[in-house]
Amino acid sequence: MKKLLLKIICLFMALGFIIAGHVQAAVKPADPPANFMHHMAKVNGINIHYVSGGKGEPLLLIHGFGQNWYMWNRILPELSKHFTVIAPDMPGVGESDKPASGYDKKALAHDMHELMKSLGYKNINLVGHDIGLMVAYAYAAQYGSDVKKVALLDALIPGVEPVWTQTKAQAWWFGFFAFPHSGDLVNGRAGLFLTNFWPVVGYVKNPFTTAEKNEFIRAYSEPGATTGAFHWFGAFEKDAADNKELMKNKLKMPLLAMGSEHFAGSYLAAHCRLVAVNVKESIIKGSGHWIVQENTPQVQKDLLDFFLSK
């Protein structure tokens, strides 16, 4: 495994020196929908950037790796008709701070919880995709009385077996991202890296618009962003140990396990039933890992059906 990682790193470095990031980043952060605004909040000693808009109960959306808050942009207008939507950049990427530590999922969940408290929200609805799924689980597991419903989108919870160890062994990027100084190798070449990584776990060809590509690349081109985001993976061993304790008390709130047909859909619901007692399943048809972009209508419908149901 280590030899394979070294080969991947060497190949990536060679490509990086030959090709200088062929997709250009946007000059400024992307604009949210008309009824949303950019904000900054200081919680736990760090600055967190987020966009918010809409009216109704609070709905927190937590993005994953390779994307930022803008991954939700297509569905924000409809969600905002029913909820006050908060979509942050997680610490480590975009306009949020990139601290030296604090990237285990319990700590990131604490950051998100403090963000919601600072906005005056206690009882919330919660969605997490990819790394955001892991943070959303840690949020719900630590602050269960504050979460009405939670949707976990197309990833796994570290340490929850048997799928976790098997997936870690098969997903080469888990090892590469956690490899010391991998973020430094990608630094300055986020466009090259992301445009080659996205298809690895996707199914639909070219699911992102030019605006989406540019915003994601820009967010990961911010100083410290690649290293910060790779720390999310470097914390997996701690996350696994933390979750083995957290899962001793299963989640009680309704949980939607939303997996893609061509990625996590075959096992996500069963995986979630190991940590929660009230699990509903949604399989996003014709989609790979980037479900919000690969099948936007079904993701939007299934989220609304779940969160609006009594």
Class in CATH? Alpha Beta
Structural category is alpha/beta
Sheet bearing the most strands, described?
Answer: 8 strands, mixed
Shape verdict: globular
Oligomer: single chain
Low-pLDDT parts are 1-26
| Percent in strands | 15-25%
Give helix % range. Answer: 40-55%
Number of helices: 14
According to DSSP, the number of beta strands is 8
Average pLDDT taken over every residue: 91
Q: Going by CATH, what is the homologous superfamily?
A: Alpha/Beta hydrolase fold, catalytic domain
Strand order in the sheet with the most strands: 1-2-4-3-5-6-7-8
- Could you give the order of the helices and strands? HEEEHEHEHEHHHHHHHEHEHH
Q: Termini separation (Å)?
A: 48 Å
CATH fold descriptor:
Rossmann fold
Radius of gyration: 18 Å
CATH architecture: 3-Layer(aba) Sandwich
Defining traits:
alpha/beta, Rossmann fold, 8-stranded mixed sheet, 14 helices, 310 residues
List the SSEs and their pairings.
Blueprint: H1 2-18, E1 36-43, E2 46-54, E3 57-62, H2 76-79, E4 83-88, H3 105-118, E5 124-129, H4 131-142, E6 147-153, H5 163-170, H6 172-178, H7 182-186, H8 190-201, H9 210-221, H10 225-234, H11 236-246, E7 255-260, H12 268-272, E8 279-284, H13 291-294, H14 296-308
Parallel strand pairs: 3-4, 3-5, 5-6, 6-7, 7-8
Antiparallel strand pairs: 1-2, 2-4
